[in-house]
Amino acid sequence: MAMLSRAADALYWMARYMERAENMARILDVSYRMSLSAAGSDSEHLQWGPALVVAGCEAPFKATGKSADARNVIEYLALDPANPSSIRNSLGAARENARAMRTQITTEMWESLNSTWLEMRGLDYARLEERGLRAFFDWVKERSHLFRGVAYGTMPRDAAFRFVRAGTFLERGDSTARLLDVKYHVLLPTARDVGGAVDYYQWGALLRSVSAFQAYRRIYRDAIRPRRVAELLILRSDMPRSVAASLGELTRMLAELRDQFGRNYRSVGLARAAHDRLRYAHIDEVFAQGLHEFLTGIVDSNMAIGKAIAEDFGLAY
């Protein structure tokens, strides 16, 4: 069991760190897109401060004494070696976990992670500006897509595969909830701005940040409306990055691990209950409760599931 726990821990966190790097790039991407519709130093703080909040890095960033402008926030969330959640550190941690599990992952997975890290460690802010900030965010997302595709296409469907997938989907569902909450709660426009050009641009930026803009147009064939964006990203199980889809896949992976090991894991019940709440929810009920409150409940639920997974399988938390 100790051997299983060590292997499961490395594989689970390898996947979570890789997904975390991608999600951090998405947070920075949506903040950057939204900042393009704002002007002035106050607006810049309002656009970049929420990126720190959603990343869970507001307090440690404040401790640096730096202002929450574009350069400082991007440097801190993307490159700072002192920030455990930075893209640099997430990619480095994913690579180290993969190195410890070379016998459990495929050669293609290792080469994907290793080459990503070798390129990442040579970047500083000047190089990011030179290649373009948007290009860097896209590069991080593409490297995550490559790793995930290689893992899906080369790993046997065994316990190792299921731990990798479980880590991916828990991290993804949490990130989508946080991203949506930043736009609706932290960046909620004044009454005169609702439905205006800036509001429309910001909702569009959010959809693009989770690769859902075209899907929204195809499904709803309508102007971008907050309720429908929330429905798409929370409740629709056919959207790959929605909270419902992420919890559905997480529940399936945990149930398969339960069946494989023949144990009654608490995490399975928690994940299924969280998924069922979304399966039977209606967007009107979500807004009646309060979108911020509903999203906060999702984040809290995901934390409880993560803790239960750690307890069930002897993983770090």
Reconstruct the topology from this structure.
Layout: H1 2-35, H2 41-54, H3 58-63, H4 70-79, H5 87-100, H6 107-120, H7 125-131, H8 133-154, H9 159-186, H10 197-209, H11 213-220, H12 226-235, H13 243-261, H14 266-279, H15 283-289, H16 291-313
Helix pairs in contact: 1-2, 1-4, 1-5, 1-8, 1-9, 1-10, 2-9, 5-6, 6-8, 9-12, 9-13, 9-16, 13-14, 14-16
Please sum up the structure shown.
This protein is mainly α and 317 residues long. 77% of the residues lie in helices and 0% in strands.
Overall outline: globular
Residue runs with pLDDT of under 50 for 5 or more positions: 189-195
Largest sheet: none
Task: Briefly note the structural class of the backbone.
Answer: mainly alpha
Number of strands: 0
Span from first to last CA?
18 Å
Radius of gyration: 19 Å
Instruction: Bin the strand percentage.
Output: under 5%
SSE string: HHHHHHHHHHHHHHHH
Number of helices: 16
**Helix percent band:** over 70%
Mean pLDDT: 89
How would you describe this protein?
This protein is mainly α and 317 residues long. 77% of the residues lie in helices and 0% in strands. The protein is built from 16 helices and no strands. The protein has helices at 2-35, 41-54, 58-63, 70-79, 87-100, 107-120, 125-131, 133-154, 159-186, 197-209, 213-220, 226-235, 243-261, 266-279, 283-289, 291-313. The longest helix has 34 residues, at 2-35. It is globular. The two termini are 18 Å apart.
